[in-house]
Structures are given as C-alpha cells and as structure tokens.
C-alpha cells in the first residue's frame, strides 16, 4: 500500500469506527469541557467554618466579622465550646474550626504570651485546607496592623512592611489555570494512545498488522495528524473558551506539537502491536492515565521522586510534553528555554518510531496467528 493510500485509509477507519471516533476525537471535545467544569470558580469560596470565641471581646467579635467578610470562608456558627465545633467538622457541617482563646485581646495589647488562635481544618481536600489557613492569616495580619496599636504600627521599629503578591503567569490564582494546562497534555496523549493501540490490536487480530514501509509511514502520519489537531484545538480554542491564562509563544507551540504527536502515535503503534485484540489494549492502558499525570511532575517535583521513578517518567511523552507546552503556552518561553524537554521529545519521537518500524515492518513474522 502506498503512503497516501495508507494515510487516507487510516483516517477513513477512524471516522467510520465508533470506537476510534469516540476515543480519539469525541473524547477530546468531551474532556475539554468536562474536566474544567468543576473548577469554574477557580478558587474555593465561602468554605464553612465554625468559630469558638472563648475571648468574647471587641477584638474577637471584629475578627469574626472580618473572617465572614472574606471571599474564601464563611462563618456558619459561633460557639463557646471546642467540642461542639469539632463535632460539627466531623459531621461535615464545616471544613474548619477556628479557636480564639480566652484573654487574646488583653495579652496581645500587653505583649505577653499565653493566648492565641488555633485552626483545625479537614485535610481531606488540601486546597480547601490551605485556603482556610491563608484567609485566617490575612485577617490576623490586617487586625494586627490596623487595630492593635495606634497609627497602625505593629512594632516600635516603624510602619509594617507590606508584601504584595502578584502572580506572574496564573493571574487568576485559580486551580483551573494551574492544573488544566498540564491535564490537557494528558488528554491528548491518552486519547491518541488508546486509539492507536486499539487500531493495532484490531489489525493484529485479523492478521493484517504487518506493514510495508510506505504503509507504516502513512499510518503513522495519519495518527500524528489526529494528535496535532487535538493539540491545536485544546491549546487554542479551548484555552480561550475556558479562560485559561495564556501568554504563549504561539509559533514555538505550533512547531513542537507535531513532534509530541509523532512520539505518542509511534508509542501507540509499538504498544498496540503487542495486544492480540483491540479491546485488550483499552483494558490494559486504561489505568495508566492517573499515574502518567503524577509522573509529569505537575503535582510533585520530579527531582524529589526516587531516581528510578524520575528516569522512567521521561520515557512517557506527556512528561516532556508538560515541561515543554506549559512554558510555551503560559510563560512565553522560547525554544531555548525548553531545550531539555524538547530534546527528550525529539528523542522519544525518533526512538519510538524506529522501534515501531522494526517491530511492524522489519521483524514482524510473515505468518500471523489470527485469534478468535
């Protein structure tokens, strides 16, 4: 089969197969809207907390009003007993408990230790826990600066130093802007990987998985073009529709996308040729999505992982993809800035293409057993 016929035949198979069409094309559209939906508010708002006011002073009452006025948390109850508040948190009525201890105002004004503010949070959701802690800290700092001492001075050394935090890239400071650019790379990789592996598994079942050089090239380019379209769709239209912060190197992104798509497509052809049927490819590869995401280093630094885990992660195209596309799309990085992950992507694209070629074209057996 010639190169162009293989290219067109592969696209025809994708568009006429319900499995491949839903996996490689429709799934990208679905996930591009489904995944960001829960994070449309970007940051948690009005998380319920219970305040235990043992001080019952003007300062503590003012602090409670300030806490309730923040965007992040909402005071759902004020009690005088810590046990009641902790019971509410265990029952799911509140995400946190804030204790204002007895004598807080008096001791703060006198500058003597003893009383304080304690915070208990439900750490099941790390983002919620950190949000409550940040809100309490901000309120305490504001009260210390504006109400404890005359003239807004906190110390005898003069006026307090004001620290202004300004996000450079994720300007909304939201969770969607942080995680979705990395997840988008996983979406492209996994949908393409599943589809290509399913295609190869189905061809192996019918005994037609062995290809000539031209057919192999046309098939690889066809699958790569699917990945290219998916990347441009997500990085362009969907990022804009979803309000994902973008300050990108568009030309750099456009140039790198085909390399990433080729690496994933070649890996899919290589892995898929091992399975004796298409369904088995889906079963075996399905559980890899979450581990592959964690191995990108988006949630935990790669250099803090065990060396063998970090080394293995670089064999997955999405790892280098995240470290290439996030800087290019969100940080206006140059190709020189992402030279290391880009070089790894090029290596993977060449390496997996060569291995797939050897497996499917050069060393494939002449007679293939057809599995029932």
Automatic annotation (TrEMBL):
Subcellular location: Cell membrane
TM regions (residue ranges): 20-37, 178-199, 220-241, 253-275, 282-302, 338-362
Pfam families: ABC2_membrane_3
InterPro entries noted in UniProt: ABC-2_transporter_component (IPR051449), ABC2_TM (IPR013525), ABC_2_transport (IPR000412)
Name the record gives this protein: Multidrug ABC transporter permease
Keywords per UniProt: Cell membrane, Membrane, Transmembrane, Transmembrane helix
Membrane disposition: Multi-pass membrane protein
A GO cellular component annotation in the UniProt record: ATP-binding cassette (ABC) transporter complex
Domain of life of the source: Bacteria
Annotated ranges, domain ABC-2 type transporter transmembrane: 19-358
Keyword hit for Endoplasmic reticulum: no
Coiled coil: none
GO molecular function: ABC-type transporter activity
């Amino acid at each position: 089969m010639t190169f162009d016929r293989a290219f067109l035949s592969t696209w025809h198979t994708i568009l006429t197969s319900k499995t491949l069409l839903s996996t490689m094309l429709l799934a990208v559209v679905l996930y591009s809207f489904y995944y960001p939906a829960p994070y449309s508010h970007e940051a948690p708002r009005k998380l319920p907390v219970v305040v235990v006011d043992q001080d019952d002073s003007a300062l503590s009452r003012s602090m409670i009003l300030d806490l309730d006025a923040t965007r992040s948390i909402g005071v759902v109850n004020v009690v005088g007993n810590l046990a009641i508040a902790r019971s509410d948190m265990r029952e799911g009525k509140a995400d946190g408990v804030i204790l204002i201890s007895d004598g807080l105002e008096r001791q703060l004004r006198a500058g003597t230790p003893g009383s304080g503010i304690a915070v208990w949070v439900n750490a099941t959701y790390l983002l919620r826990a950190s949000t409550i802690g940040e809100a309490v800290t901000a309120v305490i700092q504001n009260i210390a600066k504006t109400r404890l001492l005359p003239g807004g001075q906190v110390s005898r050394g003069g006026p307090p130093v004001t620290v202004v935090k300004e996000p450079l890239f994720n300007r909304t400071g939201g969770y969607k802007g942080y995680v979705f650019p990395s997840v988008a790379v996983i979406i492209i990789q996994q949908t393409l990987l599943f589809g290509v592996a399913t295609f190869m598994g189905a061809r192996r079942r019918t005994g037609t998985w062995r290809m000539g050089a031209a057919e192999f090239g046309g098939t690889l380019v066809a699958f790569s073009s699917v990945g290219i379209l998916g990347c441009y769709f997500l990085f362009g239209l969907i990022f804009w529709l979803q309000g994902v912060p973008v300050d990108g190197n568009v030309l750099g992104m456009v140039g790198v996308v085909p390399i990433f798509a080729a690496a994933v497509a070649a890996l899919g052809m290589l892995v898929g040729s091992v399975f004796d049927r298409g369904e088995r490819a889906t079963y075996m590869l399905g559980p890899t999505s979450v581990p592959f995401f964690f191995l990108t280093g988006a949630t935990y630094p790669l250099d803090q992982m065990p060396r063998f885990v970090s080394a293995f992660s670089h064999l997955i195209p999405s790892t280098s993809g995240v470290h290439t596309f996030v800087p290019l799309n969100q940080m206006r990085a140059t190709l020189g800035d992402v030279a290391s992950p880009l070089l790894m992507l090029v290596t993977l694209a060449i390496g997996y293409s060569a291995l797939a070629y050897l497996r499917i074209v050069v060393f494939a057996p002449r007679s293939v057993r057809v599995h029932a």
